[in-house]
TrEMBL record:
Keywords: Cell cycle, Cell division, Mitosis, Repeat, WD repeat. Signal peptide: none annotated. One of its GO terms (molecular function) is anaphase-promoting complex binding. GO terms for biological process: anaphase-promoting complex-dependent catabolic process; cell division; positive regulation of anaphase-promoting complex-dependent catabolic process; protein ubiquitination. SMART domains: WD40 (SM00320). It comes from the Eukaryota. This is CDC20/Fizzy WD40 domain-containing protein. Component of the anaphase promoting complex/cyclosome (APC/C), a cell cycle-regulated E3 ubiquitin-protein ligase complex that controls progression through mitosis and the G1 phase of the cell cycle. It comes from Cuscuta campestris. WD repeats lie at residues 139-180, 281-314. InterPro entries: Cdc20/Fizzy, Quinoprotein_ADH-like_sf, WD40/YVTN_repeat-like_dom_sf, WD40_CDC20-Fz, WD40_repeat_CS, WD40_rpt. Belongs to the WD repeat CDC20/Fizzy family. GO terms for cellular component: anaphase-promoting complex.
C-alpha cells in the first residue's frame, strides 16, 4: 500500500514547525551585549538555513509525485507567468489582513464582525473587519503558540488555549484603552488555568449553561476538563485515555463529542454530566484533528491526518416542524350555548 504525500512528508513538516518555534523563542530574549546579539544572529541564521533545506526537500518530494507540476524560480517574470495561468474569479469582497502577527496564524474564531486570530507568536488580536485600522483589541498572556480559540455564545468571553499548556478566559468588559491616541486596547485575562499538562487545542462552550467551558488536552494530558468561568473553578476532569483534539456539544441533548488522536484515533460520545461513554466511532488511521457541526446540529464532519473527511449522523435526525392548519372558526363560537 503506497503512503500518502502527507505521511511521507509529515516528519519534515513537524521539523519545520519545531525550528520555527526555536527561532521565536530565541528572538523573545533580548541579548545583553553586542557579542550576545551577534551569537543570536548566527543561531537564527543557521536555523533559517535548515528550514530552507527542509523546504527544498518537501518541494522535491512533491514534484516527484506530481510530475506535471511546475517549480517556479524567483527570477521568473511575474507577468509572463500570469499569462499561462487560468484566471480565478472571486465573487464578493476579498480582504487580506496583513500585519499584527509576527509568525503564522494557527487559530481563528468569529464574534459577529470581529475575527479573532491567534498566532505562533503567542499574541491574540480582535480584528474588526469593517474598518481599515482593524486591530480593536489585543490579548497578551501566552508565551507560546495559540492553538485554540472559542468565543462564548454571548460574545463576551473568549477562551484561548496554547502550546504552553495554559488556558485563558478573557472578558471583553475588562478591556482598557492602551493610549489616548490609539483605538486599539489591551485586555487583561479573567482566569488563567494551569491544570492541563499538554497543549490545549480543544475548546467548546456549553449551549445550555453559558458559563460552562469544556477543554481538552494533548497527548501528555489526555483529559477533558470542565470549567465554571464565573467562579474560575474546575468542576470535573475525565481521563479519556488519548489525545483530545476537538470538542463539540450536542445542541439538543446533554452530550459531548470528542475527537481523539494517539492512541485511539476515534470519536467518542459522552453523556454529560456523568461522562459515561455512549459510543465510540472508529475507522481513522491517524488523529482526528478537526470537527464541524451542521447548522441543524445533527451531522458532524470530521477530518483526520490520514487525509479523509467523514460525516457522522451522531446527534440524531433533525426534527421536521409540522405546520398546524388553522381551522376556520365557527360563527358565534365565543357565545355560550346549551347544545
Amino acid at each position: 500500500m503506497s503512503s500518502t504525500l502527507l505521511e511521507v512528508t509529515r516528519a519534515s513538516h513537524e521539523e519545520i514547525e519545531r525550528l520555527e518555534r526555536v527561532i521565536v523563542k530565541d528572538l523573545q530574549t533580548e541579548p545583553a551585549t553586542n557579542k550576545d546579539r551577534l551569537y543570536q544572529s548566527h543561531r537564527v541564521r543557521n536555523v533559517i538555513e535548515r528550514i530552507i533545506d527542509t523546504t527544498h526537500r518537501l518541494i522535491r518530494e512533491y514534484h516527484r509525485r506530481n510530475l506535471g507540476a511546475r517549480v517556479l524560480d524567483t527570477s521568473d517574470e511575474y507577468e509572463q507567468l500570469l499569462k499561462h495561468e487560468q484566471p480565478i474569479t472571486f465573487s464578493g469582497e476579498l480582504r487580506t489582513l496583513r500585519g499584527g502577527h509576527q509568525s503564522r496564524v494557527g487559530a481563528l474564531d468569529w464574534n459577529n464582525h470581529i475575527l479573532t486570530t491567534g498566532g505562533m507568536d503567542g499574541m491574540i488580536f480582535n480584528n474588526d473587519v469593517r474598518v481599515r485600522s482593524r486591530i480593536a483589541e489585543t490579548y497578551k498572556g501566552h508565551s507560546q503558540e495559540v492553538c485554540g480559540l472559542k468565543w462564548s455564545a454571548s460574545g463576551q468571553q473568549l477562551a484561548s488555549g496554547g502550546n504552553n499548556n495554559l488556558l485563558y478566559i478573557w472578558d471583553r468588559s475588562s478591556t482598557a484603552v492602551s493610549s489616548s491616541n490609539s483605538t486599539s486596547s489591551t485586555t487583561q485575562w479573567l482566569h488563567r488555568f494551569e491544570e492541563h499538562t499538554a497543549a490545549v487545542k480543544a475548546l467548546a462552550w456549553c449551549p445550555f449553561q453559558g458559563n460552562l467551558l469544556a477543554s481538552g488536552g494533548g497527548g501528555g494530558d489526555r483529559c477533558i476538563k470542565f470549567w465554571n468561568t464565573h467562579t474560575g473553578s474546575c468542576v470535573n476532569s475525565v481521563d479519556t485515555g488519548s489525545q483530545v483534539c476537538a470538542l463539540l456539544w450536542n445542541k439538543s441533548e446533554r452530550e459531548l463529542l470528542s475527537s481523539n488522536g494517539f492512541t485511539k484515533n476515534q470519536l467518542t460520545l459522552w453523556k454529560y454530566p456523568s461522562m459515561v461513554k455512549m459510543a465510540e466511532l472508529a475507522g481513522y488511521t491517524s488523529r482526528v484533528l478537526f470537527m464541524a457541526q451542521s447548522p441543524d446540529g445533527c451531522t458532524v464532519a470530521s477530518a483526520a491526518g490520514d487525509e479523509t473527511l467523514r460525516f457522522w449522523n451522531v446527534f440524531g435526525t433533525p426534527e421536521v416542524k409540522k405546520q398546524v392548519l388553522k381551522s376556520n372558526p365557527e360563527p358565534f363560537a365565543h357565545v355560550n350555548r346549551i347544545r
